[in-house]
Write a structure and sequence with these properties.
The protein has 555 residues and is an alpha/beta fold. Helices cover 27% and strands 18% of the residues. The protein has three domains: 11-100 and 280-465, Alpha-Beta Barrel (TIM Barrel); 109-160, Oligo-1,6-glucosidase, Domain 2 (Oligo-1,6-glucosidase, domain 2, Alpha-Beta Complex), CATH 3.90.400; 483-554, Sandwich (Immunoglobulin-like), CATH 2.60.40.
Length: 555
């Protein structure tokens, strides 16, 4: 494989609104991030991904950008951003930001000009179609629910939005629009960004026929999987973007692209791929039917490892790197998603940490994951703000769900669970702010917080131990460049795999149930290196795993 500067990096994702507030207005900001750089460095992070801080009306918490060249005042100033880049560089940390270019905000200057002349120059920056007999151009469904089309008042035209109606899609078929995007990207890279996490790029190419399809729900609409998900021809746009931006600066790029098959993986993230990496979401939505949160599914080790190992195999064959992720700003907390309330604790949090940091790929840690943050619980549906959750709520009601079932759906699945303020200590508002937090702090912060985990046995210190192990001279190359081979595949409750390179071999064993599991090892292990239980000698090929045990063995 071609070795790149980003192969061995550990990435920490920050949702800035909820990370650290420096001025008491209840909203996290750039100065708050700068204040916590030593914490990130001490955790073992090398690169920090900051979710959007661009100017925005915040209809979708910053993923609706009204000015790509400005910092939104709630997060600070461009001077604060420059200081963050400077201080991060001093500490050896690289900064990447979200690149949100499938769509912008309806308040962006381009869109405001498009509304004035839907078929003019700026109208062509967006996807504008004439309605059919006073109705939308087709029956495609937005990711957030409802039609992808919104009427332009006073005209026969509609504009297209993959997500919320206040997030109009940009028209990537327009070469002038693409040049504007590349110009903006290079402006940020020149400023000192190490690269971008590329948001929702899957959807930039649409079926040019814009024809209606048979409905797949009671709303009479159809999902976008066939008509705007890695649609043929998207690679032409992505290749141009790479050539004109990422290649110029040797920048890191990780794309949010689900559904990339084996045939396309090498083209997308191989040695000369369109991106450096893409997220492995193969096991992220196993707890629900796809885009149907009101239909829960029980997650088991057997369900997880089939897609997990399939994607790992594809990535190795394509000489490429996936980005490994357990949670992010669009997911509920992984502990709450994969384990029952009574099962959540040190062992289960540490088990997921071992999986995250020993799989082959680039590990991402989401803020609060390293201290075992959990879902918040609300008693009323209207306590949630997540615009995507409200789209799911409307669809659930149409499918016959009760209010109680809808609340259960939200308490399991809303994106708001990942957006509760970071729990720094046990003081008021968890040390996140001296003011009133923009969103409620999880009441469990008195028990679960970073300060309480600074010393002794804790999830935070276990993460630090794991990142140090991953970076150690003895095992770094095995964990970064080594192959991954699944083992014990017939064990329903255990996920197990080998990491091997140049005669050195690690065996990772993960017991996903709250009871012992007897397993038979192919080889007698030399020693246990990392575990969420006290380390002990394992001198036999017959081994009984403890409840929720995670152990890394040298073989």
């Amino acid at each position: 494989m071609k070795k790149k500067w980003w192969n061995d990096k550990i990435v920490y994702q920050i949702y800035p609104r909820s990370f650290k507030d420096s001025n008491g207005d209840g909203i996290g900001d750039l100065k708050g991030i700068t204040e916590k750089l030593d914490y990130l460095k001490g955790l073992g992070a090398d690169m920090v991904w900051i979710s959007p801080v661009y100017q925005s009306p915040m209809k979708d918490n910053g993923y609706d950008i009204s000015d790509y060249y400005a910092i939104d005042p709630i997060f600070g100033t461009m001077e604060d951003m420059d200081l963050l880049l400077e201080k991060a560089k001093e500490k050896g940390l690289k900064i990447i930001m979200d690149l949100v270019v499938n769509h912008c905000s309806s308040q962006h200057e381009w869109f405001q000009k498009a509304l004035q002349d839907p078929k003019g120059e700026y109208g062509d920056y967006f996807i504008v179609k004439e309605g059919k007999e006073g109705k939308a151009p087709n029956n495609w469904r937005s990711i957030f629910g409802g039609s992808v089309w919104e009427p332009i008042e006073g005209t026969p035209y509609y504009y297209y939005h993959t997500f919320d109606k206040e997030q109009p899609d940009l028209n990537w078929e327009n070469p002038r629009l693409r040049q504007e995007i590349y110009k903006m990207m290079n402006w940020w890279l020149e400023k000192g960004l190490a690269g971008f996490r590329v948001d929702a790029i899957t959807y930039i190419k649409k079926d040019p026929s814009y024809k209606s399809l048979p409905a797949d729900g009671a709303d009479g609409l159809v999902g976008l999987s066939e008509v705007s998900s890695n649609y043929p021809g998207i690679e032409v746009f992505l290749k141009e973007m790479r050539r004109k931006t990422f290649d110029v600066y040797d920048a890191f790029s990780v794309a949010e692209m689900s559904g990339v098959n084996a045939e396309k993986l090498r083209e997308y993230i191989g040695p000369d791929g369109l991106f450096c990496s893409i997220f492995d979401f193969s096991y992220m939505e196993l707890d629900v039917e796809l885009f149907q949160w009101y239909r829960p599914v029980k997650v088991t080790a057997a369900k997880i490892k089939e897609p997990l190992f399939e994607n790992q195999k594809m990535a190795q064959e394509a000489e490429s790197y996936l980005s490994v992720v357990m949670e992010n700003h669009d997911q509920p907390r992984s502990l709450s998603k994969w384990f029952a309330k009574e099962e959540i604790g040190y062992e289960t949090a540490a088990l997921l940490a071992v999986m995250n940091l020993t799989l082959r790929g680039i590990p991402f840690i989401y803020q609060g994951e390293e201290i075992g943050m959990e879902n918040i619980h609300f008693d009323h549906i209207h306590q949630y703000e997540d615009v995507m959750m409200w789209g799911q709520y409307q669809r659930a009601k149409q499918e016959g769900c009760t209010e109680e079932e809808c609340l259960d759906m939200a308490n399991r699945r809303s994106r708001d669970h990942a957006r509760t303020p970071m729990q720094w200590d046990d003081s008021e508002n968890a040390g996140f702010t001296t003011g009133t937090p923009w969103f409620p702090v999880n009441p469990n912060y008195k028990k679960i917080n970073a300060k309480a985990q600074e010393n002794g046995k804790s999830i935070l210190n276990f993460y630090r131990e794991l990142t140090a192990f991953r970076k150690s001279e003895e095992w770094k190359d095995v964990l970064v460049y080594g192959s991954l081979e699944p083992v014990l595949e017939k064990e329903e409750n255990v996920i197990a795999y080998k990491r091997s390179l140049d005669g050195k071999e690690l065996l990772v064993l993960l017991n996903f149930v709250n009871r012992p599991q007897k397993i038979h090892l192919e080889k007698e292990p030399k020693r246990a290196l990392i575990s969420n239980y006290p380390l002990e000698e394992i001198r036999s090929r017959e081994y009984e795993m403890k409840p929720f045990e995670a152990v890394v063995l040298e073989v």
